[in-house]
Amino acid sequence: MKSLIVLILMAALLPHAAIAQTGLHSDAVFKGQVVPQNAMVEVKVRGRTLSRYRLTFYHSVRFNATAQQKASINNLVERDAKQAVSTETRKQGGRRSLILSLPPNGQMRRYLCYISGGHGNKNAITLVYMEGKVESIDELRKLIQ
What does 86-141 look like in DSSP terms, one character per residue? Predict the structure, then answer.
């Protein structure tokens, strides 16, 4: 009986996890359409583990990209940035980070973080989608430091 309840709950939650970043241009990166899935390290977290950060969903992908892949990802993220409510960009040496505060989905705040470093065909890239009750990029930065 317990296993049936767990299966029903998982079936109810999985579609939401799959559509969390739907509507973003950068969703193509999470789906493995720019860099193959088998070349990425992917992390998805949902639930109680995130509650202390006031987040309900965390999805990240990390990989090394070619110059062409990086250009494609930059284009997708820039297109997402056009719909952002606010942004924060930081550069340190050859490393660049961008945090986008996206339009909320109901009461859920949504954020996209893009971190890149390197050059040529050695570009280390991390792309993170988060959603939850965090009110601003400033608050989010304080929580994840």
Answer: EEEEEEETTEEEEEEEEEEETTEEEEEEEEEEEETTEEEEEEEEEEES---HHHHH
Torsion angle of C-alpha atoms 73, 33, 100, 91, degrees rounded to 10: -30
Contact between residue 29 and residue 35 where contact means Cβ atoms under 8 Å apart: yes
What global pTM score does this model have? Answer: 0.82
Per-residue pLDDT tens over the stretch 14-50: 444 444 566 899 999 999 999 999 999 999 999 888 8
Q: Are 137 and 99 in contact (CB under 8 A)?
A: yes
Strand order in the sheet with 108-119: 41-46, 55-65, 122-132, 108-119, 95-105, 86-92
Instruction: Tell me the C-alpha distance between 41 and 39, whole Å.
Output: 7
Q: Measure the CA–CA gap between 123 and 66, rounded to whole angstroms.
A: 6
The angle formed by the CA atoms of residues 119, 124 and 130, to the nearest 5 degrees, is 135
Burial class (CB in 10 A: 0-12, 13-18, 19+), 14: exposed
Among 99, 92, 134, CA closest to 113:
99
